[in-house]
């Protein structure tokens, strides 16, 4: 089996949209501090690019959850691989994700993090695949809606590969 990557969103498109969303977030949180939660591993590239362009004070923490393993289909069970280092009490939490697909990861995260008494909790995603939703999730900031295709790049992997691509691509599987 060979794999080809077709560009869905170019590096320029992604970068310019991240700038727009960062400007909107900076306006919405004017006068406040944002506690960014990067959802590893997929969210790491987007979190860095977004954080660099937000103009209000930012603190960062990392959480690692996994439900896809090396597959293109979710196992349906979200596992915490690494929890946050810091408490959320009284903080304006913004969860940063690479993609919302079935919505299982985010609905689980909002549920458990919401119980830690943050001042507010919102969600920012690079990509949203609304057609595939099985759990309702309120998305506060979304850079792009995409069709129901398995995508890679900008943190997103296929069997752990392609996370480092600077654009969003679709994996096309061939016979050789
Ligand atoms: O909406 P969902 O169907 O839950 O899918 C979205 C989640 O799946 C992927 O993570 P994955 O579990 O593959 O772990 P990773 O970020 O370490 O690659 C992706 O990074 C999101 O976190
Ligand atoms: O389209 C996807 N690509 C990579 N990882 C993912 N996790 C959920 N959906 C996807
Ligand atoms: Mg992830």
From TrEMBL:
InterPro entries: HGPRT (IPR050408), Hxn_phspho_trans (IPR005904), PRTase-like (IPR029057), PRTase_dom (IPR000836). Its EC number is 2.4.2.8. Pathway: Purine metabolism; GMP biosynthesis via salvage pathway; GMP from guanine: step 1/1; Purine metabolism; IMP biosynthesis via salvage pathway; IMP from hypoxanthine: step 1/1. Pfam families: Pribosyltran. Residues 16-158 form the Phosphoribosyltransferase domain. Its cofactor is Mg(2+). CDD domains: PRTases_typeI. It is found in: Cytoplasm. Transmembrane segments: none annotated. It is an enzyme of class 2 (transferase). It comes from the Bacteria. Purine salvage pathway enzyme that catalyzes the transfer of the ribosyl-5-phosphate group from 5-phospho-alpha-D-ribose 1-diphosphate (PRPP) to the N9 position of the 6-oxopurines hypoxanthine and guanine to form the corresponding ribonucleotides IMP (inosine 5'-monophosphate) and GMP (guanosine 5'-monophosphate), with the release of PPi. Belongs to the purine/pyrimidine phosphoribosyltransferase family. NCBIfam families: HGPRTase. PANTHER family: HYPOXANTHINE PHOSPHORIBOSYLTRANSFERASE, HYPOXANTHINE-GUANINE PHOSPHORIBOSYLTRANSFERASE. This is Hypoxanthine phosphoribosyltransferase. It comes from Blautia wexlerae. The lineage of its organism: Bacteria, Bacillati, Bacillota, Clostridia, Lachnospirales. The gene is hpt.
């Amino acid at each position: 089996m060979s794999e080809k990557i077709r560009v869905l969103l170019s590096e320029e498109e992604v970068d310019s949209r991240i700038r727009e969303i960062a400007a909107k977030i900076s306006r919405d949180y004017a006068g406040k501090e944002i506690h960014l939660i990067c959802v590893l591993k997929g969210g790491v590239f987007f979190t860095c690019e977004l954080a660099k362009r937000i103009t209000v004070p930012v603190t960062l923490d990392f959480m690692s959850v996994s439900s896809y393993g090396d597959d293109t289909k979710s196992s349906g069970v979200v596992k915490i691989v690494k929890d946050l280092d810091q408490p959320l009490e009284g903080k304006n939490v913004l969860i940063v994700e690479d993609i919302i697909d079935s919505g299982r990861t985010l609905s689980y995260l909002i549920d458990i993090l919401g119980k830690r008494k943050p001042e507010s909790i919102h969600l920012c995603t690079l990509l949203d695949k609304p057609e595939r939703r099985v759990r309702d999730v309120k998305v506060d900031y979304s850079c792009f809606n995409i069709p129901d295709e398995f995508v890679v790049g900008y943190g997103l992997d296929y069997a752990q590969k392609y996370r480092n691509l600077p654009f969003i691509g679709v994996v096309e599987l061939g016979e050789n």
